[in-house]
Amino acid sequence: MKSFFKNVLANIVAIVILCVVFFFFFIIMLVFSAMGSEKSVVVKKNSVLTINLKTNIIDSPTEEQTGLFDISDQNKSVLIYDAVEAIHKAKTDDNIKGISIEADYLNAGVTQIDDLRDAIADFKRSGKFVYAYGNAVSQASYYLGSVADQYYLNPAGMIELKGLATEVTFFKEFADKYGIGIEVIRHGKFKSAVEPFLRNDISPENREQLSTLLNDIWKNTSSKMAASRKIDTAAFRTVVDSLYGMIPELGLKYKLADKLMQKTEYDRLIKSKLNIKDDEKLNKISLGKYIASYSEDEKSGDKIAVLYASGSIYGGDEYNDIYSEKYIKYIKDLQNNDKVKAVVFRINSPGGSANASDEILFELQQLKKKKPLIVSFGDYAASGGYYIAMAADKIYSEPNTLTGSIGVFGVIPYFKDVANKNGIRSDIVSTNANSQYYSALNGVTPYGVNLITRSVEGTYKRFVYFVTQNRKKTFEQIDAIGGGRVWSGTRAKQIGLVDELGTLNDAVKFAAQKAGLKSYAVASYPKSMTPFEQIFKDLNQDEISARVIKNKIGKSNYEILQQVTEKRKLQSEIKMEMPYQIKIN
Length: 585
Fold this sequence. Notes:
The chain is an alpha/beta fold.
């Protein structure tokens, strides 16, 4: 019997060892595979630069969504800066004969699409062709594709051209029903980040700012589409209101598309344009591969550093989003790097923790003392995202950026009613008058509410102070356009919250000019995670759970779920945060 158990134990140990060895062998093979995938790319003659579903356009390296098993080019992410530079380079590249836009759904923000669209419009000046093809086309994809010389649609396809709308979700009735109390203290009648916990309907102030925002963005995007398709503005509005794009024949009739054809016929058309025979291969090259064909060595020469800050702002030291400890390290490294002659700080954030935002702003102010600091806004740079821009020498915003939201709030959840309904109560023993000014069961004491109100008001005054210093305006002038109100980039330029309307690429060029550089390389920070870092991040239980849920219910629904379940969203602290992300898809 002893011999039997010894054999069983030995077999178990052998299996465990084998599994461990296999696991580490798998990791090593994965790393080598990832390293080997960075092959040199050769651009063939008669090539067509292709924008399709295989490429995700992202604003920051921290938005990279590559998973543990994603080692192919299928989901290759491309930074918007690199994508725009690639299109500019393709304009004078003799091997690139044209651009083909083949994306039914485009994974990119509205300002990123703006930048791509403008770059493609500039590419057309070379005389090279730009064609677009679609099946079931989202509004965002059509916004990009409409810049093409010709737009082709599948005979059974559709174009979801419908205008913009927003749906605000409210949780007050839910909280009341289940006995969840939420104490809210805010400064600014437009500070609508807390409205879902206070009301069951939209406030007049919030309706006003949302209507203004949506109309500003739609005016910018719809006018470009109408102009590209040579459709009268009034007629284009009728087309959108009537959803004519949903019916292929009507889309053709009302000039949304130039011809209905199958994808094979579309490829033949491009071959004919390039004088390629039907039986010959059409050389298409993706943005990612084209960028890889000419990527410069960043190790030598003077640099302009682009520091990307994408996501919500928190205290801590994690990779995704904007964690203050991590960004303080990045900023200090750039400050002490002699090869970096200027820094462009790219912000794509709705804000977050007031304390973390203040920490980041201080370090940026120290950086500015040593070298030029230019700020570029992406889809949104509001509240805390706007606050951290206040160290800038100059601020560039996109026309469709959501910015401003100069306001502060505190959200304090407690569960007294639900606890009492279920037979749970508490008694407090303390040493001082306010040792327990806040309790998850009993909420905030009156003195605690008064204290937090003073903190919110103090933080708001500090916010406005830094804005007055950077924008060279009085407290009264900033307070009049503050109050938590969100503005489009176009209006932000008109009221003096930003200096220029322009792209990230424009900001980089200005930074080089301010630093006196004629020749320079552009280096991106933070660096993308190494294969090992990505592997261990993907093995994190929370990461796995989040991915599964997000894939099941969709990104938009997942963001709603986060508002009521994510502990970082409900932390009892003073916040500078904006609740909106406006998208055109």
